[in-house]
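Here is an idea for our session: we take a single protein and study its fold together. Once you have written the record down, we can walk along the chain together.
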Amino acid sequence: MTADGALARLIRSAADRAAEADTEVCELCAARVAEEHPHLYDTGAGQVRCVCRPCSVLFADGGAGEARYRLVPRRRLRLPPVDTGVLGVPVGLVFFVPRSDGRVTAQGPSPAGAMAWEVDAAAWQRLAAAVPQLAGLTPDVEALLVNTVRGLEEHWIVPVDDCYRMIALVRREWRGLSGGGRVWPAVEQFFGELTERS
């Protein structure tokens, strides 16, 4: 065995382990998941979990998990402009999630991750009465996603995993105090690539 051969095998082995570490797996059964895969919302931890399709079936229609895990739906619906100013949230890039316990939370991205606020539930109810699609949001797993930054008027009903992807995008692209030159074009591209689906 030559030193070059051993070194080459060591390098290949390390590269293989790194590739395996980058491969996403189901957080229930550890099977590899496709790039496009379902998610569960863990109500106890307040986190989205990756799952394979067979495991996701267990949680359809409130199946397994005794309500701790909720299957994140795929629905996306573009809305006409919604007057979210009545909710008292002072940012233009934000998402609102009604919770199972009746609360409504708002979260906006920042360089450090998500900033969160609790929204007045009565104000949300008034807004939902004016915009009937909001009354049909599935608690904990669907959100009203809004972007009014730089004159845009983007209002969507989306699964919460889309919202967390947007937060990760802002965190990754943010530079300096104001965000730099990359973050806002990336956010506009994110919204430009959203497509309606049921």
About this structure: The first strand starts at residue 39 and ends at 42.
